[in-house]
Design a protein that fits this description.
The protein is built from five helices and 17 strands. With 311 residues, the chain is α+β, with helices and mostly antiparallel strands. A hairpin with a 5-residue loop joins strand 14 and strand 15. The structure holds pyrrole-2-carboxylate. The site of pyrrole-2-carboxylate has 12 residues, from helix 3 and helix 5.
Length: 311
């Protein structure tokens, strides 16, 4: 029997399960190198933590690891029901809430190492967290795409720590009760990108689809984000909001340090801002996470579903 200590939280409704004890030994390389070891030797562990029957399709896991640089507060690898994430904005906010809950950090700025670079997470005395994300940029603008139910649509391809295809103007109102419909629409968009071989830079897979409608709770915009394993993000998606900020900046629609209020499909909100950095931007995303469970997972090798139900 293996025992794994986890602390769960949610950020704007999107869950994060932080593994604080009992994870695999991934050595002492960079987070990108450790991710490759995780993927090739311990993928069962990923599935055991987040997939049913212990988890659910929407659960995002975060494996805490000793950082390479002692000045950083932690290293982390994010994962989901089907694989691994480069960065995760709502998850990084969740990690900060957990480190605060465990009294391992104090308010102030903290470095978090991720597979795609180090981000700065600033915790305030009122438990808000601002993630200053990896540098983000728009790669291609207004890419045409033929989608069966939609005809020809146009979307931007942008990097915000993961690759996104961003589409405006498909929805007058994005409501959570229509989540199944938007899942089907965004899944068709994803399939069309694959069919046409449309990718991020250097052939990178675009594994997040983000569509936008008008804000309904005082936000500048509301989004629906399809994640790689077909769950939709309940939060406004930190990396997706970063990709959006890169597009707004490139179009001259938002100025440096101006606030962008991004709502999610469930009505939760992140505040985003950016600074120019080279051709792209350095986005900052502010939100709050709440710890909602603390438990020990029991991995019994005799259990036929010990390692989760994979899709
Ligand atoms: O907040 O960046 C994010 C995120 C990615 C996938 C789910 N949430």
């Amino acid at each position: 029997m293996k025992r794994v200590r986890v602390i769960d939280s949610h950020t704007g409704g999107e869950p994060t399960r932080v593994v604080i004890e009992g994870g695999p030994d991934l050595g002492s390389g960079s987070m990108a190198e450790r991710l490759e070891k995780f993927r090739s030797h311990h993928d069962d562990f990923r599935s055991a933590v987040v997939n049913e029957p212990r988890g659910s399709d929407v659960m995002v896991g975060a494996l805490l690891l000793p950082p390479v640089d002692n000045a950083a507060s932690t290293g982390v690898i994010f994962f989901n029901n089907v694989g691994y994430l480069g960065m995760c904005g709502h998850g990084a906010i969740g990690v900060m809430a957990v480190l605060d809950y465990l009294k391992r950090i104090k308010p102030g700025a903290h470095q978090i190492e991720t597979p795609v670079g180090t981000v700065t997470a600033t915790l305030t005395a009122t438990n808000e967290v601002t993630i200053t994300n990896v540098a983000s940029y728009r790669y291609r603008k207004a890419v045409p795409l033929e989608v069966a139910d939609l005809g020809t649509i146009h979307g931007d391809i942008a990097w915000g720590g993961n690759w996104f295809f961003l589409v405006d103007g498909l929805a007058e109102k994005l409501l959570v009760q229509d989540a199944e419909h938007w899942t089907s629409v965004t899944s068709q968009i994803r399939a069309a990108l694959e069919r046409d071989g449309i990718s991020g830079e250097n052939g990178a897979e675009i594994d997040h689809i983000e569509i936008f409608g008008p804000g309904l709770n005082g936000g500048d915009s509301r989004n629906f984000v399809l994640c790689p394993g077909k769950a939709y993000d309940r939060s406004p998606c930190g990396t997706g909001t970063s990709a959006k900020l890169a597009c707004l900046a490139a179009d001259g629609k938002l100025k440096p340090r101006e606030v962008w209020k991004q709502e999610s499909i469930v009505g939760s909100q992140f505040e985003g801002r950016f600074e120019w950095e080279g051709e792209g931007v350095r986005p900052s995303i502010t939100g709050r996470a709440y710890v909602n469970a603390e438990c020990v997972l029991v991995l019994d090798p005799e259990d036929p579903f010990c390692w989760g139900i994979r899709r």
